[in-house]
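Reviewers of the previous submission asked for a worked example of the structure-prediction workflow described in the proposal, so we include one complete record here. The input consisted solely of the amino acid sequence. No template or homolog information was supplied to the procedure at any stage.
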Amino acid sequence: MTGTPRVTGMTGMTQSRQKPAGKPAGKAASSRRTVPKHGSKQRNPRGGLGATIARRLARGYPQAGCSLDFGSPFQLLIATILSAQCTDKRVNIVTGPLFARWPTAAAMALAHQAEVETMVRSTGFFRSKAKNIRGCCAALVERHEGEVPRSLDDLVRLPGVGRKTANVVLGSGFGMGVGVVVDTHVGRISRRLGLTRHADAVRVERDLMAVLPPTQWIAFSHRLIGHGRTVCTARRPRCAECLLADICPRVGVKPVPPKPSPRGMRRLKTD
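From that input alone, the workflow returned the following structure tokens.
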């Protein structure tokens, strides 16, 4: 019930105790005003930082996109599986002849293991990769009539496919922003920027989804990967050239010691 509090005496009669008019509500009422509404940006103080980073990266890398060559979601799926622990440049060299030899999931599912291994050997871990892409193609034929599904749950059930690969296919292959692709660059730079403290890719993705506008989920990863390759490198980040330098907390970045002056070097030699 709401209204004025009532005091009951020993006789059982009740009295109303009126509050003075014009005084502010009590502590409980004021505390309710400080609680952000559901879905409000106040719920995550990093939300503003995430949106700012996304805007700046969009200005700095407007043409960033998937660096794997593909002509269909199927080709992108196979190329992404092969890209594990391998450069995209090397994968692009391999996938041309690979898709010319086996252009469809049905054809690749019937390929011999040894022949596929030979084709993908230069990408590393070639035995497991050959097994995975053959198994993935067989599952596509058996479960999806040879077509790549448009569902994250269906994709991660395919052999050799995890959340990263599924997000790449959905985002770059179908234009569906279901999640954020987290590779080595994205995880490393997100921690450096203070957007996450986790090393696990799934937790990093969850943190990024909480602070980034959903419209940026696809492009953000491509832009951050480009930034990581050109400016925010792992060992010696070029902070002086970084478009995020004024808002980056540089988590884990060791300060670069200043170079000794030539005059100081001469004194060292003469001492």
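The longest helix spans residues 126-144. We consider this example representative of the routine output the project will generate in years two and three.
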